[in-house]
Write the structure tokens for this entry.
Amino acid sequence: MIRQRYGNLFDMYEEITDVNPGELANEINGVKYYNPMMIYPAIHYTMGGIWVDYELQTSIKGLFAIGECNFSDHGANRLGASALMQGLADGYFVLPYTIQNYLSDQITVPHFSTDTPEFDEAEKRVQANLDHLMSIHGKRSVDSIHKELGNVMWDYVGMARTKESLETALKKLKELRKEFETNLFIPGTQEGMNIELDKAFRLRDFITMGELIAYDALNRHESCGGHFREEHQTEEGEAKRDDVACWKYNGNDETAPTLIKEPLHYEAIKVQTRNYKS
Amino acid sequence: MDTSISFKLKVWRQANAHAEGRFETYEMRDIPTDTSFLEMMDILNEQLIEKGEEPVTFDHDCREGICGMCSLYVNGHPHGPATGATTCQLYMRRFHDGDTITVEPWRSAAFPVIKDLMVNRNAFDQIQQAGGYVSFQTGGAQDANAIPISKEAADEAMDSATCIGCGACVAACKNGSAMLFLSAKVSQFALLPQGRAEAKRRVKAMLAKMDELGFGNCTNTGACAAECPKNIKLSNIARLNREFLCAKCSD
């Protein structure tokens, strides 16, 4: 039964690790032991996502966010397959019935022209960004800084977080951003396909995102779902759930974001520590 | 398990679709055999960047065999020598010390090279857009329960639906045909009652699009099915032909 359902998973595992999990490893007193599969927990760093209304439209009119990138379907934790579930649910059951409410008004709207001051300004900003990244001429590759970011997140913003570890992370991330802005090297030119330039743009966002996660984890004095603070292991600490929060970007990456909180009031349920055992 | 190998890497370099391409040879030293093929390419790129040279451009994304982005033609095989696995699931223990490993992009008129090993597979999207969907409401959960589907049909449809659209079938085919891809996309609908209503229109539209985009036709060589990382069966092509014949006859 397991082989029928997950057969190709075993093949994939063997291809990756060179160990066949379906192979008999040992037999002691008539009990058969097969090669154990090595598994390791990993962390979902972000919960929530882009704000959308009931029609899955974001705060930008005409921009819809569907699937796992929006905040709508999960709380403090993500369970297995929730990405697939939300992609299917939003794309199949929600969007086909809601996007037409927006599109029905659009039939009278003529094609947009890019000949506007807003477009010029946006284009200028992107071009300045490109020129800046290409002109750093430092020594570090995008991947090497990306790896360092991964290590900082894993070591200090990982599965178990403390006040000290999160403060260390914020300090290290600030240094890492400085390294990115002053010591990055991107070979090639801006013309045509340049994968390093492409990666650099995303890495800058990842650093901002990493900082945001660390800020939020530091300010959330409780343990809930995917967020576990070592200081708040008590029954109370794990059952608090007293607010939802988002952070306001203050115009540049050097300024710390501002926390905006909304308290949660429970009427029908009693908030308690999560328990998978009973 | 802690072994390393050294080998020669012959990589196709091409600045853009119109530039002339050539093979560059790189010496790779002491690569652990537990390294995946794409991680090995990352190591090569890190070394190239260190020397101030441009890294090798190649497609990749999830690196767990489900997104269909990786697309290297390794030693004459799409996705390399491993069967039922994508390039990202290929590990260096498949190779030996002293080997020469040749890496090329997908080779097909319908997949123009963007740069180095990266090709434009937009043609597959266009084929899908021509008919790879159901355009009406198929109902809610209760409707699904009211339409019984045999386990055989459900399993077959699921097997067809595992196609990740990577294009290995086209790269493997001497005719540059997209028939295996197309047949998998047609089959996943043809086998289910929800797909029957538009079956005739679908198969004709998708086949016409495939021809229009410059893919070749099928001569039943079977190379596609042998190289497919998701083991899509050749019998899908037979089903595609049957679907097409039925559609044409009822015109």
